[in-house]
Amino acid sequence: GALLVSERIDREELCGALSPCSLSFEIVVENPLELYSGAVEIQDINDNDPVFPSSQARLEISESVAAGARFPLESAQDPDVGINSLQTYQLSTNPHFALDVQTRVDGSKYAELVLEKELDREEQRELHLVLTALDGGSPPRSAHVQIHIDVLDANDNTPVFNQSTYKASVRENTPSGTLVTRISAYDLDDGPNGDIVYSFSSHTPAKVRELFALDSASGELRIKGQLDYEETKLYEIYLQAKDKGVVPGVAHCKVLVEVVDVNDNAPEVTVTSVYSPVPEDAAPGTVVALLSVTDLDSHDNGLIVVQVSDVNDNVPKPSQDSYDVYVLENNTPGMPILNVSATDPDLGHNAHLSYTLLQGDPTVGHLFSINRENGTLYLLTSLDHEDQVEFSMMVQVQDGGSPPLTTNVSVSVFVTDVNDNPPTVLYPHSNSTTTYTDVVAPGTPAGHMVTKVVAVDADAGYNAWISYTLLQATDPSLFSVRLHSGEIFTARQLREDDTPQHTLVILLKDHGEPVLSASATVSISVAEMVKEVLTDLTDVAPANDPRKHVTFYLILAVILVSAAFFITMLSVGIFKCYKWRQSKELFNSSRSTVYRTPGPFHHIDAVRGGFTPPNFYHQVYLTTDSRQSDLLCKKPFTSSPLGSRQSTMRNGEPGMYHQIVGTTSRVPVPAE
């Protein structure tokens, strides 16, 4: 079944200027008997150079010719077709002429010289130019022609055609000698300068000269050869009129001859295969012979016509039932993200498809749009993976039949994440005015977890994977941080001589591209006694404490209460002194009131500024006038510092608590 080339193929020899060039054949397959028609298209290669009719061309141009005059040049011929055929001309650089390359109806190119600067015979009697013809091959092939221009003395008037373009139609079976059209030109000069001779222009192809004849005196254009519609449908003929002056004037015109097809080719019936004899018991439908019918004529002249009207009986068929589209977040608004394609085997309006985005979800209509004609889906705004990860919509494909048939295609748009969010520190919070200080006792062994940096990343996947590294520390050898958990551990056992205050800067990085980072500052105090912690913390008063106004009002209230108490006590004292003389028992009774039983304990927030972690709980016992007494502290709870702090934050408790018992009065003691 292989189709082989039996000899070298020359497209130009087989088809000439016809394109495409194809060879038809038929193949018979037997058992079962079937007939297949085929064609081989011979593709052109750039194996021919452009060729000029001659290597030199001579023009005679009067010095009186005005700028803008045009002079046709000999056309080069290239038997190749398509892009390999003649594509353009180039003219050597000169001060007088420019080159104008034009295209005929059949696609071929021809060149005309255009006078841009008037000639002066006294200044220059002749000019030498080089015209180059180039085809469109890679690399291009070329040809050159030398153009010799003689500058002649003026002939005042040139011939003028009564119209620049003539049109005519002839049937392809028109006999030789039939008049096609008559061209006419006039010249205002007298004598030989006014006598006009008609001729073909120099760039008229040789094939045209073989098929048409021009009377040089009358300008009649007649049929000379046999026209064939199947070979050429339109001829573009360029003619010129030249007077007989010493310096002849020349005018040009164009004649378009349309060849009308006639039904001059009978259909050819070819019997490809015959089965004979036929058995008498052959069933109806048995193949007896295979016939093929061809007609070289065109259009209706070449058809055996059977018209079948179309019915809209086919629904649009999409190339796939569903689409999954992945779009990076922070996209450019207005970008196309998908082309929904479908086909309909019907014809005409029944096969014209339109695409509509069904408005099931109102959000989809604001974010997406589809081109009704070609099914291109556009994204109207920038998406955010952190806002919504997936969008689902339905595209309806509808044909133009009556009634129309539709098909729905589901489209899912997935917003893929990009690393556009740095890690966010939850603890310790960097924007808070409160300084968090974690406390660890001296002698704590290595591996003890002191606290934990808590952070999140709004991105997803690998972009949200946070790593923690110790960027800066007061003593780098004392603490270490877990790479993936952010837990801060003691790297060695704490000693008595270690620095009491430590500041750690933790660098948090995600694993996106590019890497985004943040930092957290952790303060750790090494202390055994609460007094030491409080003494150190008094030097770290938080700036811009939002409770300073509350403290002022508390102090003012204490002063007012104390003043009222003093006045009351003074009045009672005077009254007691008055009664002293009356009763000694009253004096003893008044004395017993000086030492009253202590009232219930009062919890005082000693770390209202957030300096001391909540794992310290102390009871402090004070006696009357014990303002200078030392604080007796219990040991801290053994629970996790981070867990204690988080529990305190959830319960709304600010920090360390003290129980102060006094025999004189009970007043709140601020942490400062």
UniProtKB/TrEMBL annotation:
<dbReference type="InterPro" id="IPR050174">
    <property type="entry name" value="Protocadherin/Cadherin-CA"/>
</dbReference>
<dbReference type="GO" id="GO:0005509">
    <property type="term" value="F:calcium ion binding"/>
</dbReference>
<keyword id="KW-0130">Cell adhesion</keyword>
<keyword id="KW-1003">Cell membrane</keyword>
<dbReference type="Pfam" id="PF00028">
    <property type="entry name" value="Cadherin"/>
</dbReference>
<keyword id="KW-0106">Calcium</keyword>
<feature type="domain" description="Cadherin">
    <location>
        <begin position="319"/>
        <end position="425"/>
    </location>
</feature>
<feature type="domain" description="Cadherin">
    <location>
        <begin position="432"/>
        <end position="544"/>
    </location>
</feature>
<dbReference type="Pfam" id="PF08266">
    <property type="entry name" value="Cadherin_2"/>
</dbReference>
<dbReference type="InterPro" id="IPR002126">
    <property type="entry name" value="Cadherin-like_dom"/>
</dbReference>
<protein>
    <submittedName>
        <fullName>PCDGK protein</fullName>
    </submittedName>
</protein>
<dbReference type="GO" id="GO:0005886">
    <property type="term" value="C:plasma membrane"/>
</dbReference>
<keyword id="KW-0732">Signal</keyword>
<feature type="domain" description="Cadherin">
    <location>
        <begin position="53"/>
        <end position="161"/>
    </location>
</feature>
<dbReference type="Pfam" id="PF16492">
    <property type="entry name" value="Cadherin_C_2"/>
</dbReference>
<keyword id="KW-1133">Transmembrane helix</keyword>
<keyword id="KW-0472">Membrane</keyword>
<dbReference type="InterPro" id="IPR032455">
    <property type="entry name" value="Cadherin_C"/>
</dbReference>
<feature type="transmembrane region" description="Helical">
    <location>
        <begin position="552"/>
        <end position="575"/>
    </location>
</feature>
<feature type="domain" description="Cadherin">
    <location>
        <begin position="162"/>
        <end position="269"/>
    </location>
</feature>
<keyword id="KW-0325">Glycoprotein</keyword>
<dbReference type="InterPro" id="IPR013164">
    <property type="entry name" value="Cadherin_N"/>
</dbReference>
<dbReference type="InterPro" id="IPR020894">
    <property type="entry name" value="Cadherin_CS"/>
</dbReference>
<dbReference type="GO" id="GO:0007156">
    <property type="term" value="P:homophilic cell adhesion via plasma membrane adhesion molecules"/>
</dbReference>
<keyword id="KW-0812">Transmembrane</keyword>
<keyword id="KW-0677">Repeat</keyword>
<dbReference type="InterPro" id="IPR015919">
    <property type="entry name" value="Cadherin-like_sf"/>
</dbReference>
